[in-house]
Known about the structure:
Elements: H1 3-19, H2 23-42, E1 45-47, E2 50-52, H3 55-66, H4 72-83, H5 88-103, H6 110-125
Antiparallel strand pairs: 1-2
Amino acid sequence: xxxQHAIHNEAACDFLLSSKKFNxxxxxxxxYAALHFVQNELFPIKENGKTYKxxxxxxxxxxKRKNKRLSKHIATIQLIKTHLPACSPYYRWLYDACMxxxxxxxxxxxxxxxxxxxxxxxxxxxxxx
Length: 129
């Protein structure tokens, strides 16, 4: 995942937040910006003497073997918990909020949209790249 994609999603998040009209999409773009930022931070990753350049390769070669029913989102959550623990609670909250906004209830409060944006900033503040 590219950092440019993360920056693009973050800009969309900020634009939507300023409109105060599409809070569900603020949450969604905050989550996907976070996803791209953390994947950029995590990869390439070394495990058992092998280097994996990106999540799809790592997921196919390592994670999928461990648990056939594991999703890439949950694999990312596990990687963050292990390698970026300071980001973990913020990322998990964004993931849950995004899944709720996208699939359960698009009616998201402005306060929750603001919190999503704050949590994206917290994640970025804990990254080195």
